């Protein structure tokens, strides 16, 4: 049974800041956002967590095993190095979507994302150390079959991008609705999903759903472990086995 | 009449590199990709260009005014600082999508994106200085009406993300099909489109299309100038005027 | 009694790389070196260690509490993100200088710093967990008395820099010769020293030595703890107390 | 005749910020400082300038060819991405030390480096475009003869560092006193000096002075050009010729 600890990272009052006193240069905002994400990826990654950039002003992390103190230290480290601050809400649940729901509520209860006085909130529930198991986090790593040969080397790059993007948009929606799972595009033709306890037929169904709906062919490797990092690495290795064996779904559970 | 110079930036042989000799840690790949993008954003930005992360292993830039030497210097600078190299294809056309088509073809003709021996390609056509005008680049900056109040402060963050993502997926497809334009999600609830010469009714039509198709309410500010940076800043200011006036489309052409 | 674990970080074959096939642009080398240092500062810092940039191609870290696995992970993370690799030698001793001596020997025995085939060495002795105490690391944080009023706001910046630099050059030499301690300039008018078990008269003597030899007035706060980070923070707080009380030496041991 | 445009970059009110409300974590300050330097190195480097980290809170740049607008854009870009702001003073003179003197005075006249209300000052004189020549900037690139064989591969790394540091401390002082030149350690065993119009005997004298005073053997390549970047690259190539020919001084003027 999965038991996922999810952290919502929200830049405080970011929208207003980007246009105060007048719109800031886009190239600086892009550098700011992507470096903030890179740093968070390392800060959470050093503690066996995963962060996804999602909307950049709101990022979502899987943080099984991370304490409230570790969260506080990350919050402080960002404040020491960036012109913006971050708020953190944390939730734990059998399904990733409900864990994120709790994490989100904790920030929403503290005030609006665009409330100037709501800064550096840190609230939430941690997974108790005694309750942790090697089945807590289930990660699925999807990619597109032969994306380079089918798309990248043949189409206008934007048309390739449209294909990947439509595949992702459909997969993210379906996995959330059908399986309470959170799917994130991570670059190239890759999507990483943080899943509830779902089995082989469910993955086969998702792959089939995306193929029949938007015509994009996926394969997926799945791993399960105590932390995001370990489950994610198992998923990557399982995906390599898909490649070698030519199969659409490999589970390493 | 727009005349857009577009550069395709492709990491050489990236997919294979990420799994050689075995899968590399995802948190490092994410840090690598997002910092590479941040650096390119600054390198092109310092020359009045814009870069969009799109798929991260393939990024798309608007580079009016940038010479082949400037491109070569950027290519060298990345090789000096990263474990990967980049190839650059450049195209110029009345429409952004055709300019990107040329840029893409130039790399495809040089070999596969996953060909180990195809490295640091630099090919393409530049916009001749004598032909440049103040109407060459048209940029549209879209955002979602009251995204914070409607979504961020109310929904589970993933459901907010789904809304934004479905709006983007629909807009990117429509703007490409109907208007030969390239639209990129840039974080939060923002999309920046590199457009051909399109007018107010076309923007109104796109906003209406997204509303009626996926139920997401957009507004858009549009700017036009000699470079991406100047056109983009005009678009941001126009978007601020949408906000002040409560209108869906403001053109500053 | 101090018992310091010291890690020597050496970029593999760096000198030759910087001029192959011809000299690389200095601005890229500077960005590469300083970002590598920033990343190491975070990677070691996330594990309660301190890194000093010293010569940038050779950096020195205090790593009490860090395992060989933690070192291996840092080594791998750098290889995943940089065009260069690093070797790590680790030593433990009563005095920091002897610990570094062991760390250095381990790399020297593995080959020259400019041997192309000597890559990613990882060798050394760790401080056994059972032997660790709250007195293992002693850190002294020095700064120059009223540097802003005396120098920065009055002299040509280079002449200020010369003063600070001569003070540092004298302090580093004296602390090493007289007290087997390693002193590092860390920016502004600050020097952090990793010390053996030395007492108040020894610090008073060092401050007096620098004043009488090169005319630079220092003060110093000293902390001691289980890790570099905790000892260093205690030293900073002690230095604040010097400032408040107007005294030259405050020990928080 | 050299004619050097020098910019002093000063972080506003940095010292107080680092200890407010209490001392900030050193590993964050180190990451902040070194990344700020890396970014400035790229921002100035993209405009053919050089920046030296010197004290990190005060950095010194050679900016021949850069306008006041380019300086303003860099200032704005840093404010958009960092929790601190920078002030810039600019001076031009036959000798680098006097150019820096003017740059320093402009900031000192605007207030103290630790005045909370003195922020983002931008003042100074630019080198007029019509007066620029290919002899404006003279750069000397020094390194230590056989540093790897003599020191790195043989001594405790701190003792190597002491040798390099004593050599640098002596060279920086001598070049400033005898030749109005500004010398900066740039990592490894390398020092880059921004020089006035000095000739071969002067370089031979400096090399001899350092050898006889502190026993460190240097060699030096010298270049001259319109910008720091071009002069610096010529100096690097000249240093390669020293290596090949086994001579102590090569001038490419």
UniProtKB/TrEMBL annotation, chains A, B, C, D:
Xref: Gene3D superfamilies: 3.30.70.270, Nucleotide cyclase
GO MF, any single term: GTP binding
Highest taxon, organism lineage: Archaea
Stored InterPro entries: GTP_CycHdrlase_3, Nucleotide_cyclase, Rev_trsase/Diguanyl_cyclase
Catalyzed reactions per annotation: GTP + 3 H2O = 2-amino-5-formylamino-6-(5-phospho-D-ribosylamino)pyrimidin-4(3H)-one + 2 phosphate + 2 H(+)
Pfam family, one: GCH_III
HAMAP family: GTP_cyclohydro_3
Role this protein plays: Catalyzes the formation of 2-amino-5-formylamino-6-ribofuranosylamino-4(3H)-pyrimidinone ribonucleotide monophosphate and inorganic phosphate from GTP. Also has an independent pyrophosphate phosphohydrolase activity.
Protein's name according to its UniProt entry: GTP cyclohydrolase III
Species per Swiss-Prot/TrEMBL record: Halocatena salina
């Amino acid at each position: 049974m999965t038991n996922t600890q999810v952290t919502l990272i929200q830049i405080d009052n970011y929208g207003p800041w980007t246009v105060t006193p007048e719109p800031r240069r886009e190239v600086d905002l892009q550098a700011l956002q992507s470096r903030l994400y890179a740093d968070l990826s390392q800060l959470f990654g050093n503690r066996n967590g995963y962060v996804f950039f999602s909307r950049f002003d709101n990022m979502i992390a899987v943080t099984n095993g991370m304490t409230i103190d570790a969260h506080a230290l990350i919050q402080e480290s960002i404040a020491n190095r960036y012109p913006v601050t971050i708020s953190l809400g944390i939730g734990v649940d059998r399904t990733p979507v409900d864990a994120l729901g709790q994490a989100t509520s904790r920030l929403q209860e503290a005030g609006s994302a665009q409330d100037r006085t709501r800064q550096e909130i840190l609230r939430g529930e941690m997974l108790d150390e005694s309750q942790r198991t090697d089945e807590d986090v289930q990660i699925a790593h999807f990619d597109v079959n032969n994306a380079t040969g089918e798309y990248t080397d043949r189409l206008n790059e934007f048309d390739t991008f449209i294909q990947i993007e439509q595949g992702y948009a459909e997969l993210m929606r379906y996995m959330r609705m059908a399986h309470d799972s959170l799917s994130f595009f991570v670059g190239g033709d890759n999507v990483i999903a943080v899943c509830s306890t779902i089995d082989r037929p469910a993955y086969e169904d998702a792959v089939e759903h995306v193929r029949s709906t938007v015509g994009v062919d996926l394969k997926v490797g799945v791993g399960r472990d105590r932390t995001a990092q370990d489950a994610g690495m198992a998923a990557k290795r399982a995906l390599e086995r898909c490649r070698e064996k030519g199969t659409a779904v490999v589970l390493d559970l």
